[in-house]
């Protein structure tokens, strides 16, 4: 009957004559799995229940009993309630089947988990077919009832990792020390509050130690989960402990990326000279014009001096003097073309000065690890955890990196030395907002990701509310609440400020908002040069007076 229903609804099945759930389930990694077994006596039922614990896949168990076996079911009640098991016993009086489901329930007085048997009559079956579709609804429906803790304690261990859980002072804390809810904050803390409220539980938080820079070495806190002292653990944890514990499923992802320091070029006269690098073209035309003018004058038998030609040509080019008087048509043509070139030079220099004083160009930025590696940015990494990933591109930069103590020290050296480092992307918005200058970011990231981290909470494996916990966590994740809590833990204003600062530094925009004008302060260098020239002229004038007076007396 069940096989027929499975084929009808395209549910993958494996049929075996031997009760060996380990071999059967390890061969299948996908699909909806169920096991259908038949027991003639209660002794076989007891052995069958013992085999359920060896199955590491999510399996729906259907057990058809020839007898009710109330004694065995009562003895194994605490074990049965951990699995998705449904029993069927033939009703001798009516001729149909009675479905029995074991459901866990907590005693609100003792706060101990107990189980009760729920019985429901299902449709009569004959010749492997059912008279209606109710049998399918009974067997394959995914009814979900949240577990009610009835205000009993829900103990959760909290590790610290920004922005999932953060505590200002934790130097004197040891694993399993109690925490006050108001003393710790972060997205996981808010998530645990929601889940505790959903379970109608009293939330108790405990501190668990876990190294933030290299979290894979610390697992001492797992003993509190395994022995039942803690029901769950959170705080940016990972699925790295095998099947000795259960997991909530992925509720948050983080990327580990290369970040580097950037800044716009500061305004200086060296920068202005660099922007006007095309001036050498005008100098070439100035020399050519002077030579041609001297040749033309010689050809016309006019007295001309190369020194005077160079001096007057330069004055005409920069607008300080007029061009020499033209006496022939050839000279007039040369003067006209030279004046046009002088006007073009004036426009070119004016545009460059205007651009230099009003437009901020974006700095050099890198999209790939290869581009960052080819730059002059020095990498700063924590020595004990720098080789956390095996990748040629990453290891090339890690080999040439310099040392820093922790994330904070790496961030400090990143800014101070205009280098690069590796950060979790959750740290980047706060760093960009904190170090921004004139609403422009001083830290950017490359597009390539070194690694993507998938965060999962840890649960006690034999906990009766694991399924409910996973269900509510995934629903919170799919609804976007987990991401919303993550952004709020960083700070919505910080995230928004980081986005604006990141956009500003990469845009080629005007630094002013309404009409860009060149102020006297911005052109102060020109006046300083003019004043210096006047002082120099006065000094020369005084020297000439003294020399002429000495000659007069002699």
TrEMBL record:
Keyword vocabulary terms for this entry: Cell membrane, Glycoprotein, Membrane, Receptor, Transmembrane, Transmembrane helix
Entry superkingdom: Eukaryota
TM regions (residue ranges): 277-297, 336-357, 527-547
Localization terms from the record: Cell membrane
UniProt entry tagged with the keyword Transmembrane: yes
Membrane topology: Multi-pass membrane protein
Chief place of localization: membrane
Entry protein name: Uncharacterized protein LOC112057381
Organism encoding this protein: Bicyclus anynana
Gene that encodes it: LOC112057381
